[in-house]
Automatic annotation (TrEMBL):
Protein's name according to its UniProt entry: DC-UbP/UBTD2 N-terminal domain-containing protein
Matches recorded under InterPro entries: DC-UbP/UBTD2_N (IPR032752), DC-UbP/UBTD2_N_sf (IPR038169), UBTD1/2 (IPR039869)
Organism: Volvox reticuliferus
Sequence segments annotated as region (Disordered): 1-44
Higher taxonomy: Eukaryota, Viridiplantae, Chlorophyta, core chlorophytes, Chlorophyceae
Domain DC-UbP/UBTD2 N-terminal: start-end pairs: 34-126
């Protein structure tokens, strides 16, 4: 059977050159937003760092791949552009824009609390 209406297939490489250019109208870049949150009790930066260290030390023991946890930790501590590159290179699927829920290529779920993703708005400076 034939096709009723068809048009010739255009090669994307012919339009954009040999490499895909991120940020074009055909392929927009994905930005991950850091969540804004307020802790129930105001905390200092040192207390926040301690909570983050406890999370990263214990969370990998509850499942998932250690390499994915390491990539997520590096992405949480990186600038937005570097974060995006780390996420993509590790093959992490971000299910929530704020990165609070992620999956690896095998389908394992990784949940990140807000305190590892960003600082609270009521953060107290250390004295």
């Amino acid at each position: 059977m034939g096709c009723v209406s068809s048009s010739p297939v255009e090669e994307p490489a012919a339009q954009n050159g040999p490499f895909d250019v991120p940020g074009t109208k055909d392929k927009p870049t994905k930005q991950y937003a850091r969540p804004k949150w307020k802790s129930q009790e105001p905390m200092t930066l040192s207390q926040l760092q301690k909570r983050r260290e406890e999370f990263w030390d214990t969370q990998p023991h509850y499942g998932g791949d250690r390499n994915i946890w390491d990539a997520l930790k590096a992405a949480c501590e990186a600038e937005p552009e570097t974060c995006k590159l780390l996420i993509e290179s590790a093959g992490i699927i971000v299910a929530a824009v704020d990165m609070s829920v992620c999956y690896d290529e095998r389908g394992a779920k990784y949940e990140l609390p807000k305190y590892v993703l960003s600082d609270p708005i009521n953060l107290i400076k250390d004295q």
